[in-house]
Amino acid sequence: QVQLMESGGGLAQAGGSLRLSCAASGIFFSIPTMGWYRQNPGKQRELVAVITAGGTTNYADSVKGRFTISRDNAKDTVYLQLNGLEPEDTAVYYCKAQVRTRIGITYDSWGQGSQVTVSS
Question: Distance from CA of residue 15 to its chain's centroid?
Answer without folding.
Answer: 20
